[in-house]
Amino acid sequence: MDAAQARIFGGMPELLRSRLQKRLVLDRPDVVLAEYGTMGAEIAKACEQAGAPLVVHFHGFDAHRTDYIAHYGNYAELFRYAAALVVVSRAMEQQLLAIGAPRAKVIYNCYGIDVEHFVPGDPSTAPPHFLAVGRFAEKKAPHLTIQAFNIALRQRPEAKITLVGQGKLWDRCQQLVQELGIGHAVDLCGVRTPDQIVELMHRSRAFVQHSVVPADNDHEGTPLAVLEAMASAVPVIATRHAGIADVVKDDERGLLCEEHDIEAMATNMVRMIDSPQKARAMGLAGRAYVEQHHRVEVQVANLQQILERAAKR
Length: 313
Description:
The chain is an alpha/beta fold. Helices cover 49% and strands 13% of the residues.
């Protein structure tokens, strides 16, 4: 159990719960929105005692990790009291239903992004470079992205990849790059600003993410970096993991493979190198999809409607 987990599993002290209940009685909010299922589980009792409607927004680990689910008793009390349970992927929707959430309360509302901030590029004119953005965490498996790239690099020596981010797997990935002798083609550049990431998107043939389910059953929601790549008209090479498969239609907006199949991911990288016009077509299809389905203003409006319905009930 890590420190963050220990803090959450310590629970909300009864004194804080009592103070929250009194505050809710005093303020009489129309509705309470809890970010993450774990927070919802902690405050559900106080909300119920105060008569405050509760909407809970699940994001990923909170819906899937077996240790959290066990600690909160399959969220039974939360599922009973909450007015709505918002999920960001179809896999998460099925997961909550599987552990006992009422069908009528589970609502799919994926993330939105500021589409206009991401000016579409043209991956067909970009060099055969790939980009990955995200925490160096088990479920994002950057080491598997590097292994897949190494296979592609042996077939296409002109290829390069940049991995943006930091995390507990960063040292492991740095060591892997050294062991494979591919430091000339791999840039572990650390954290970059949003504007710098947009620039990197425009210099890339494709965005890459090899998300997997680790031993603790953690899952992605729908990765924002994937949506941002699509908004930049950059095709996505990824695994069929959680919400990725909801937004990246295989062979239309990108190329998908199964988790841990680094050979298939390498093949998809080579396809993008060899078919710049295909990369362009997929990138444009991804941009069109995000414009229609993932504008932040639309998704926020959907959430607002969920909150209003909960308040009326």
